[in-house]
Amino acid sequence: MIGYLARRLGQAALILLGISVVTFVLLYLLPADPVRQIAGRSATAETVENIRRQLGLDLPLWEQYWRYLSNLLSGNLGRSYLQKSEVSELIAARLPASLLLMVGAIACELTIGLTMGVVAAVRRGGWVDNLLMVFSFISVSAPQFVIAILLLYVFAVKLGWFPIGGYGTFAHLVLPSLTLGLLGAGWYARMMRSTMIEVLRQDYIRTAQSKGLRGRIVLFRHAIPNAILPIVAMIGIDIGMFMSGIVVVESVFGWPGIGQLAWQAIQRVDIPIIMGVTLVSACAIVIGNLVADLVAPLIDPRIKLR
Amino acid sequence: MRRLLLSGIALAVMTMASPVFAQAEKQGGSMIVTYKDDVATLDPAIGYDWQNWSMIKSLFDSLMDYEPGTSTLTTDLAESYTISDDGLTYTFKLRQGIKFHNGREMTAEDVKYSLDRVTDPATQSPGAGFFVSIEGFDAASDGSAKGLSGVTAVDPLTVEIKLTRPDATFLHVVALNFSSIVPKEVVDEFGADFGKHPVGTGAYSLAEWTLGQRLVFARNADYWKAGVPKMDEIVFEIGQEPTVALLRLQNGEVDVLGDGIPPAQFLEVKDNPDYADMIIEGGQLQTGYITLNVTIPPFDNLDVRKAINMAINKERIVRIINNRAVIANQPLPPTMPGYTEGYEGIPYDVEGAKALLAQAGLSEGFTTELYVYNVDPNPRIAQAIQQDLAAIGITVELLSLAQANVIEAGGAGTAPMIWSGGMAWIADFPDPSNFYGPILGCSGAADGGWNWSKYCNEDLDAMATAADSMIDPAKQADRYKAWSDVYMGVMADAPWVPVFNEQRFTMKSARLGGPDAIFVDPVHIPVNYDYVFDKNVQ
């Protein structure tokens, strides 16, 4: 176990290093000059060169990267070019909101996805099953931007049940979580349905039924716990999916998380912020995957760590 | 010999005499303003965004300002000023007893410090270039001297600024955000984080800033202008998608849409009689244009540039943006002094355009590229341009890119054509010179400059310099005529297709009061917060 963990952590460090190199090179190759964004439209050529020198953007790529990496290793993500603030401070101010949103999304996708999967499996082949599978198909394929605006219009503007965007209370959390969670819910519904169908065919279910147990007890005590295990282990992997989703969802709902921060930074070539958010998201994904792998054998003894 | 040009007292009387500000509204109340993008900084030497421009004007003051809702210069922290006969020395007399938000009194030393700071290369101010006419600018900006040798604090209430050449726009320059007066001790205390802890002399002070969420401005009780500002508090909610912000305004949750009415909802809102009193329309010192890169063939041929000017159906483009603009026929917007009245422009004439192309030996047409900022409605406008040019045989490939990429291509001179929408050009100050140097003059044509046509006409540059040397206010009309000649010279060379001048539409809640002009203020963009009042507390 310890050896496995050490190996995985070593791999994680390599992955993060690789991501930092790739992102850095991509940003360098971008046909847009961050210095011009800082210098603005009235700057003289001298001002532009002066800023370039001060930020070290006149250095060769490898030297720029080396500087960045050595700062990073001492825990310094640098200062934003345009906001002039510490990137770590900007991310720290926004990270809790994004995490909260992800927790909300996980709750939504599990509740909705698993329920749909179970119901569909039990009513396999019937119209309820078909309807649920069509719904899961839509929730997987509909653009989150459209879902977000639709939910806002119906539940916030027309019905007034929830606030129109913003951040702060539980009511603010519901619609963005739902938007972000619906995509995963569609996947989970399909997976839960197939594992449930698998489980319901097993001998121990038939035994339970033949013992004369009521359908509900068979379902909740014997079938669902066995079907749910492999799915729960996948939550960690969802974090990667959320990281791309939050950019859209946070922008529409005015949710002050790191997705919004990244989106604004990309538009203005604010390299330190883009790098910072990318590395933080990559960390989250790596950790999510690691936790998923570590938890899996605990809940399903058939899986072994190697 | 020095002449007293304008006394602050006389001006104050004039201002008070105007009917708009005659009634004194009660102070109190609060309002909520929404913006989509984060407020990057509130440091006046650095801030140059849509959302922080007017915020900075409320937190800070400069030597000069403009009458609310107009582009008429007035004194601000300066009580009066004099200009020497040769136009090279400006002497500003400061108001007595002006206090920073931290309670300290502002002096001439602060003015000197602030101007030194904005031109110091370490500050990385995007506005440093505006101060180029001050003596000692070159030495200060290449780091060989600390501070501007031309700026002196004569006594605690007198500042003298020496210029290297007469500059008729200089009073506008000291009214810019970049000229805001900041207290040295606070800048020293926070260093690079001053932009998050701004302290000025303005009508409001920063009370709270939750990064990425909201900012709260509180009324400066010690503000030197009696009865200003009107509100006790302004709350800025950040990160609000314009579509969502509009829904919230309709729901009564917010008061001002900082980013305006989203294009897709514009007609629906504009045609709804319920909102008639909530929408305010105003002109804007803005021109939308197509640049034709005169260094890239065949745009080096005047006939080709004229043909393109004749081929663009500007009426249709204005319709595409729901008539939120007026058709332009010259670089300057109609409300800018120096605008040439009665000029017809290059008329829309498809057959004439084809004839000109044939004359240039291009009757078969040619293929070229048009760069455009990828945010609505700009790609749709670019498509209209593409269709118009197809009608005269020119095949246009659209490159719809992020703003930074378009600006890069424009500055590097690799873009044959650029549609300027969403990037350029809103005037920094209401003077015709501001539409020339950076975007049409030779200096802006250098690598990385904003003159994306790479157009450089030395004769016009000389005329422009001559016009800006006419500092005598009695000759102002002559100066504007000189500028009008410069822009007519530009039109003769046709490096641009001027397409339209945007109109601004601000939407506000019904309970907000104040003259319409301050909601579409030409200088305090987008809204002059200091004069907005709450009808409910009256």
Automatic annotation (TrEMBL), chain A:
<dbReference type="Pfam" id="PF19300">
    <property type="entry name" value="BPD_transp_1_N"/>
</dbReference>
<feature type="transmembrane region" description="Helical">
    <location>
        <begin position="167"/>
        <end position="189"/>
    </location>
</feature>
<feature type="transmembrane region" description="Helical">
    <location>
        <begin position="99"/>
        <end position="122"/>
    </location>
</feature>
<feature type="transmembrane region" description="Helical">
    <location>
        <begin position="227"/>
        <end position="253"/>
    </location>
</feature>
<keyword id="KW-0813">Transport</keyword>
<keyword id="KW-1003">Cell membrane</keyword>
<dbReference type="GO" id="GO:0055085">
    <property type="term" value="P:transmembrane transport"/>
</dbReference>
<keyword id="KW-1133">Transmembrane helix</keyword>
<dbReference type="InterPro" id="IPR000515">
    <property type="entry name" value="MetI-like"/>
</dbReference>
<dbReference type="GO" id="GO:0005886">
    <property type="term" value="C:plasma membrane"/>
</dbReference>
<dbReference type="InterPro" id="IPR035906">
    <property type="entry name" value="MetI-like_sf"/>
</dbReference>
<feature type="transmembrane region" description="Helical">
    <location>
        <begin position="12"/>
        <end position="30"/>
    </location>
</feature>
<keyword id="KW-0812">Transmembrane</keyword>
<dbReference type="InterPro" id="IPR045621">
    <property type="entry name" value="BPD_transp_1_N"/>
</dbReference>
<feature type="transmembrane region" description="Helical">
    <location>
        <begin position="134"/>
        <end position="155"/>
    </location>
</feature>
<feature type="domain" description="ABC transmembrane type-1">
    <location>
        <begin position="95"/>
        <end position="296"/>
    </location>
</feature>
<comment type="similarity">
    <text>Belongs to the binding-protein-dependent transport system permease family.</text>
</comment>
<feature type="transmembrane region" description="Helical">
    <location>
        <begin position="273"/>
        <end position="296"/>
    </location>
</feature>
<dbReference type="Pfam" id="PF00528">
    <property type="entry name" value="BPD_transp_1"/>
</dbReference>
<protein>
    <submittedName>
        <fullName>Glutathione ABC transporter permease</fullName>
    </submittedName>
</protein>
<keyword id="KW-0472">Membrane</keyword>
Automatic annotation (TrEMBL), chain B:
<dbReference type="InterPro" id="IPR000914">
    <property type="entry name" value="SBP_5_dom"/>
</dbReference>
<keyword id="KW-0813">Transport</keyword>
<dbReference type="GO" id="GO:0043190">
    <property type="term" value="C:ATP-binding cassette (ABC) transporter complex"/>
</dbReference>
<dbReference type="InterPro" id="IPR039424">
    <property type="entry name" value="SBP_5"/>
</dbReference>
<dbReference type="Pfam" id="PF00496">
    <property type="entry name" value="SBP_bac_5"/>
</dbReference>
<dbReference type="InterPro" id="IPR030678">
    <property type="entry name" value="Peptide/Ni-bd"/>
</dbReference>
<protein>
    <submittedName>
        <fullName>Peptide ABC transporter substrate-binding protein</fullName>
    </submittedName>
</protein>
<comment type="similarity">
    <text>Belongs to the bacterial solute-binding protein 5 family.</text>
</comment>
<feature type="signal peptide">
    <location>
        <begin position="1"/>
        <end position="22"/>
    </location>
</feature>
<feature type="domain" description="Solute-binding protein family 5">
    <location>
        <begin position="73"/>
        <end position="445"/>
    </location>
</feature>
<dbReference type="GO" id="GO:0015833">
    <property type="term" value="P:peptide transport"/>
</dbReference>
<keyword id="KW-0732">Signal</keyword>
<dbReference type="GO" id="GO:1904680">
    <property type="term" value="F:peptide transmembrane transporter activity"/>
</dbReference>
<dbReference type="GO" id="GO:0030288">
    <property type="term" value="C:outer membrane-bounded periplasmic space"/>
</dbReference>
